[in-house]
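[step 3/7] fold_predict: job queued, chain A
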Amino acid sequence: PYSEQNGLPTPPVVTKELTQTALTVTGTAASAMLESVVQARCTSGTPRLVLSADDIGAAGRDLAPLDASTGFDLNKLNPGQAVQAAVDIAGDGTLTLKGITSDQGAAGADDASQGQGTLTGS
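[step 4/7] structure written:
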């Protein structure tokens, strides 16, 4: 086991990588459902939300900040929280937050009070 007391494991842990090997474009989507992790919430000025690009952080990237000015209470969301979000996709690739809810295990996913906006139709 790895610890400060025992040192590095043998053999060393290999960092996992994501590699896209192919891409097939079948059309332009107007909306999407995302599973993500809240990275930051910006409540000053135009409220914005920063979400990870994937649900486990393997990509090591975040999405561009999403405007959350239409009735979203960002104080219900905490950095590190797993969420499911619905977004609209503009022709230029800009994402607009349509709805968001907790995806923190069964208890969070079943907590209707965590939902904001709409998650239907995506």
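[step 5/7] annotate
The longest strand covers residues 31-42.
Strands lie at 31-42, 48-51, 66-67, 82-89, 95-102, 116-117.
exit 0
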